[in-house]
Sequence to fold (321 residues):
Amino acid sequence: GSAQYIMSYIMSAVNNTKFNSAVFLLTGFPGEEDVHLWISIPFCLMYVISIVGNSVILFIIKTDPSLHEPMYIFLSMLAITDLVLSISTMPTTLGIFLFNSREISLNACFAQLFFIHLLQCIESSVLLLMAFDRFIAIRNPLRYASILTLPRIGKMGLVCVLRGVAVNLPLPFLLQEFQYCQSNVLSHCYCINQDVMKMACSDIRVNSIYGLSIALLTVGLDSLLIFLSYVMILKTVLSITTQVECLRALNTCISHLCAVLLFYMPMIGLSMIHRFGEGSSHLLQILLGYVYLLIPPLMNPIVYSVKSKHLRERIIRVFIK
Fold:
């Protein structure tokens, strides 16, 4: 009996170590593996455009002293966040489509997950700061430069980063406590908390509540405050007498509004599907997953370059030289 007990003890120990040094399998487009190489072409293009676009914006804002205004400094914060976000999802995404390498170790997965959630949180904060910037520019144009001084903007940026780190740092540690013994196939080509915690065969209630609380306290709160700042902007704009000035003031907000919609819509959609959409189509989940992380870094530089005449002229000048 004792020999049997020792054997079963050893087996359970082996199984436990096997589960916790396990790997996760990432998913590209299931069933379309034979065309993954073709699918990689638009993905490579998206990454190249995102990285080049955001780098160009950063370069131009840094080298042109006339762009050292609050609006453009916030835009450069957005560009840095988008740039790092693209780089943090690129290895696993292109790994799947180019080399069909689906395995990712638990620690690499937790690290990627932390960076994705951190950068999303920072991006949400930066979009809020940009809404605040537009509000002050329209509400109090004469005091704009004295309210948003460079040191103050620097402190705001630091608060965004610290807030992101503080709320997201527990995520990988909470996930490390779990045993992973179910099918370890993730539903995206990168790791996110909602997806990884479903793989655990432990009680994930604490993690689920914590993840939802973070989402509400960061992205939820930011989007509410952005909405309120636009209500105030509209109120101010409608009190402007001439229609031309009214439209000019609103025009300065269009690129920011596009950035807000590009960021929040897919994020809310994906979060809803993960939490409540058990019967939703798998393809929709996968497509939303790509839109959620690839489209904002790709579109933000394009939207801002198209909408900001000043920035557009500088970009053209750099390339024509």
In short: Residues 23 and 105 are 5 Å apart (CA to CA).
